[in-house]
Amino acid sequence: MRALRLMPLVKSSVKNSRARTAVFFIFILFCITCILLTTSIILPMGYNMEFKVNQHPYNLELTAELSKGDTVERNVEELKKIPHVVDVYKAPQTIRVFDADGKMNLSFFLSYFHNGYIPEITYGRNVNEGEKNTAVMPEFVKMNDPETQLSIEFDCKTLVGQVLKLSDENQNTYELNIVGTFNVTDPALDTEEIILDVEQLNAYQTNVNNDRNTEPYCVIIDNYRNMNSVQSACDNIAEYSYTNSFKIDLNNFNMSMIVLLIVLTVFLAMVVIGTSVFVSNCVSSRTRELALYRSLGYRYSHIFIIIFTEYLLMLIAATIASVLISFAAATIFINPYLDKTIGGGIMSMQVQLDFLSIALVFCAFLLIITIICVNATRRTERIPLAVLLRER
Questions:
Q1: 3 state SS for the chain
Q2: Which residues contact 29 (CB under 8 A, 6 or more apart)?
Q3: I want to staple 117 with a disulfide (CB 3.0 to 4.6 A). Which of 19, 57, 97, 302 is the partner?
Q4: Is 240 exposed, middle or buried (0-12, 13-18, 19+ CB in 10 A)?
């Protein structure tokens, strides 16, 4: 018997139990909507924590202080041989400078973008490799208004294309052509930094008073999980080593992730338990109907198709409705809230419903319903037909 011939029976069963169908539809709609929204927050948050923070280029570095002298080159080669070390290069020190023109009346630190880091340039362009006497600035800096003495934000985009004159504590002067501004929401960067090419900053090191007995070298690692083992190996070669200070606290995000995973687990448990109880009760209350099907010669597979198709149609309708509700909720409420609380920084994210997530959630529900319907149908199959016919 073809499955399509059973559709009138399915249609009749749904019509005769409108209240039961409506309750199950609302239950599935609620669960799918909650799971879709929860996973749509968990996935981008997990991606940000793993790749934007943990795998951030500044988080894949440690600084090894090597003793000055003839052993530096040998020590550098030994550092490069450490497992999981990608590269080693001399790390220039930052230079504190002051605005010689009096445009901002502020002090800055001449610094550089570390290897592998690609900044977000908000205006103009980035400094090219090997480019001399050029720099990029933060998109804004906070300063005191000369007239009101109130704290204001100075828009550094106005300096792009101009030459900024700076001087350090030793009265050395620097004339830098400002070619762009960078986004300061990245916690690796600072609003007090002016970024140069690393070679140019190394050339300025002769102006730095350096009476230290060691020189800093940057050790780049392939994965943040290998940081401890590499640092232990570096301590056997260098005088000492330390990791970079990354200005972001993941504790709140870790706690949020744990809460969301607990909520997702609760929703999944609700689906399994609720659907199992609901379908089992519905099948138990339809013993007379099922007995009639069996007395008419319907086999186990036919009864399964009738029961399963009812819940499949409700699942499809609930999935479509939940996608529309989730999209509206994300657009109107959730995304504006995330923009307000997290902002446009490195952890910025948006709830987006992609086809893959929807398909996975639908398949998960489909699998749960299939297993429950199979078990419910097998249970009726084990009951003798005479018993079914006596039940009311």
A1: CCHHHHHHHHHHHHHHCHHHHHHHHHHHHHHHHHHHHHHHHHHHHHHHHHHHHHCCHHHHEEEEEEECCCCHHHHHHHHHCCCCEEEEEECCCCEEEEECCCCCCCEEEEEECCCCCCCCEEEECCCCCCCCCEEEEECEEEEECCCCCCEEEEEHHHHCCCEEEEEECCCCEEEEEEEEEECCCCCCCCCCEEEECHHHHHHHHHHCCCCCCEEEEEEEECCHHHHHHHHHHHHCCCCEEEECCCCCCCHHHHHHHHHHHHHHHHHHHHHHHHHHHHHHHHHHCCHHHHHHHHHCCCCHHHHHHHHHHHHHHHHHHHHHHHHHHHHHHHHHHHHHHHHHHCCCCCCCCCCCCCHHHHHHHHHHHHHHHHHHHHHHHHHHHHCCHHHHHHCC
A2: 318, 321, 322, 325
A3: 57
A4: exposed
Could you tell me if 216 and 91 are in contact, meaning their C-beta atoms sit under 8 angstroms apart? yes
Sign of CA dihedral 260, 261, 266, 270: positive
Query: In this structure, is the dihedral angle defined by the CA atoms of residues 109, 113, 119 and 121, taken in order, positive or negative?
Result: positive
344 and 185 in contact (C-beta within 8 Å)?
yes
- pLDDT band for position 210 (cuts 50, 70, 90): low
* Tokens 């894949």 found at: 60
Residue with tokens 């930094």: 193
pLDDT tier for residue 6 given thresholds of 50, 70 and 90 = low
How many Cβ atoms are within 10 Å of 14's Cβ, its own excluded? 15
Triad 27, 32, 37: Cα angle to 5°: 130
pLDDT tens digits, one per residue of 84-143: 999 998 888 888 898 877 667 788 889 988 887 888 898 999 998 888 899 999 988 887
Beta bridge partners of 219: 62, 88
